Queue: 3 jobs
Job 1
Amino acid sequence: MTSLWRDGEFLKFWVGQTISDFGDQITLLALPLTAVITLHAGPVEMGVLAAVAAAPTALFSLFAGVWVDRLPRRRILIVADLGRAVLLATVPIAFVLGLLSMAQLYVVGFAVGTLSVFFVVAYQAYLPGLVGRPQLVDANGKMNASGSLAQLAGPGVAGVLVQLFTAPMPVFVDAISFLASVTGLSLIRRMEPLVVARPRDMRAEIREGLSALLRHPVLRTLVAASAIFVLFLSAQTAIFILYLARDLGVDPPVLGLILSTGAVGALLGALFASDIARRLGIGPSFILGAVLGTIGLVSRALLFESPEATVATIAAMQFVLFFGVSLFNVNGPSLRQALTPGHLLGRVNASYRFLVWGTGPFGALLGGTLGAVLDLRVVLLVAGLACLTVFPIIVLSPLPHIRTVPSSEPAPVTS
């Protein structure tokens, strides 16, 4: 089995995505701070902003899966990157012209979120054909590791850039980074598997993808556990930056450092995910990720008399949270990609995103709405404790007994 370090085609894809991930992390901080600092958004507006960015997952994932299984996947990736570059560039341009508004942020967030749905579904379907199923845990680990490196450096750089140039301007860096991703994708010469010809019935194709996902006991467990986790993580995410900036009075550079501390955990989680999966088994390592993620979410709400102790604790819990999230993000997709027949990858991945990440808008609105009537710290605590409901689902499933990733393409589940 050839090492991915010597696989030039994978490296082209990986390098381009790493640069794009770096730009994304700058926008992750700069866009909410644009709303808070430049446009003076409150909890409800922050909840709406998070919700409109997440809504396309619920609205378009199933349709994206059908098109990803109908069309060459690399072409979809390139078009999605180009579109996101153009959309994000409009934010700093509108700011310079004095035209920036929350309405524009809502529109850009929704449109970028829509293209991201197509990109992620296509990317997860494209990767098995690019590297082969036996290499999936390694490939997903490397992709998540580089993404975590971007999380480590991006928020800190974003905090400084926001301080120097005001919040909207760093978004332009993300727009440029998508062009690096396009370059890497355009240079790949490895042929992807041919699209399987079939009757084009949108509803039947969507049903086929949902059925393949929900009839498989392991994939069904991943859906249920992940949907709960994403729902309450989204509720926290919608108000977390507002909580730090408004309630705790954290300055943008320190806020960036807190997010970067979480990125250290994410990086180490991604780097060690393969080793942990080999030692514990891929199923138990997924469960470990759920344990650590829940601890991190609950502990974000800890508060001490000393502001320094509170900020340090939140930073430490960011580390724990995102170490666990990395185990989720490496082992979960690897299992899903390995357990799904190739011709169904687009629709199964899309169905998963619809059912799991489709909870994100509801979580964001829940967090924003509760944050408008309750103390933000209380909302963080309640959302974290609610994640405990995933554990009966996981423990009673086949997941604890799965040790390795299947190396050959499975037959479709028919019953």
Job 2
Amino acid sequence: MFKINKNKIPYHVGFIMDGNGRWAQKRLLPRLAGHKAGVEALKRVTSAARELGIKELSFFAFSTENWQRDKEEVDGIFDLIEKHLEENFEKFIEEKVTITTMGDISKLPQKLYRLLIDITEKTKHNTEFVVNIALNYGSRAEVVRACNKLIEKGKKNITLQDFASELYTASMKDPDLIIRTSGEQRLSNFMLFQSAYAELYFTKTYWPDFTKKHLVKAIKNYQSRDRRFGKIKQEKNK
């Protein structure tokens, strides 16, 4: 049986947390119950990732397209995120966790916006672990934002490094692995530039059911792949 290699743990893992609504509907529950269970899954996965040695996580929590959902569901999602952050604020500081965000958070409810500003400021010097939350985020909008920032600076002959420095993830490493739950097999406008060489892993498991066991399975699959980054595989001398 293939065992996990502690020396090949992905540094940065991104999660497209899909299937909360369908998880709830299959149980004849309101969609918000699925999102609540999804927050519990996020907590489980974050804890498991730290145990396994992963250093950075990115969670796709709310996209620029999610505003099209019913207001009750949108408000409920924001309330759940706010509650989770408030309840764990001191824990993040004690455990040296850095909280960062991706997306235009200025469009979020003011209380949540102020909480995010406060928590990112107070945890920015932590060094043990990074949790990056994508809120009102879309990768195409992020690319346009980066271009406009470079134009404002009068930049010409832009390099990849120049461009990457204007992304929300400027202080982070590119993801090694992107995991999407619920059976869908697409990135849905999530970290398109950063994921150029990320390994993609899709599972039919709904996000609320995702556990450490599923994460380990994804990492084993990741470790079985040959990451060449465009290079030719070097054959070992016989």
Job 3
Amino acid sequence: MKFNTKVIHGGQSHEPSTGAVNVPVFFTSTFAQKSPGIHSGYEYSRAANPTRQALEDSLASIENGAKGLAFSSGLAATDCVLKLLNVGDEIIACNDLYGGTYRMFTKMFEKYQLKFHFADFTNIKNVEEKINEKTKLIWIETPTNPLMKLADIKAVADLAKGKNILIAVDNTFATPYIQKPLDLGADIVMHSATKYLGGHSDVIAGALITKNLELGEQLHFIQFAGGGILSPMDSYLVLRGIKTLALRMQKHSENGFEIAKYLENHPKVDRVFYPGLKSHPQHELAQKQMRESGGMVSFTFKSGKKEDAVKFLEQIKIFTLAESLGGVESLANHPAMMTHASIPAEKRLEAGITDDLVRLSVGIEDVEDLIEGLEKGFV
């Protein structure tokens, strides 16, 4: 089954009692049992719910995984992965990853004696030199948020072979339409399903997909015991979004490429961060690892001034100044003051997140209108 078919039919079946084409929203906390311990496969909705199960089966299908799990947020999914670890374990992660992930790693889990190393994954040697006998997890974002750096997933996975190290990939920006981390050697894929999987800015959700069933069951136990599940209604919304994922990602990518080219040629723009541009330092890796380049574009100003970025964001049209990304509508963001404000200023600058950096989530509107809306910001 190919991808465009998978997003609609993958892991799905008609509802057996009525033949409903779309899975119903099962608003129930508990399920009747024929006899103690004898039931239809569902006991209590924290453990499993038919609507959530349909979403989880779809997630496993589109990521080519063995098991999918749906969470109340992307951070709840990340939290679940970290709970696989033990005191004294060490984790290697990208140095410009999403601010909420950095906050969780450093403010929540360091106090439980987990040690985090942050590295620039664009050079595989930076990862290799941090691996030791205590390394148990390598956390990859590719492309990274917000600098659009790429990590060679297969190369990192090859480094970890035979060393009892889990490879987890945040595939939020790329989505399974563009990139398949499990096929490249990763053990776990994480999504903030709030973004492209949901696709309509109307739900908060997260997802994990595992390469093998045993690891998936371990994560399911942590989810069940901790309770970070996705509600039936939100599961329905994400499942609905997945059905149009392929079509949306094609348009996001087309528009993203046109916007990136426009910005690269603008006299007030200094650098554009977009894997689809030949000027991107890892363009060749993008061509090898990614089907398209996606809808996320970041850029800086030739002036280098924060004030110019703020003025631009106040004046743009069509694009909405807001947190988040991946919806059908175009959004604009100032990472240093918004999504990445929880990262200390010196760490942001060290990673390359400057105060004049703007991040765009390019939607599926007509690209001519989007360019006209951006031009208003440069006046």
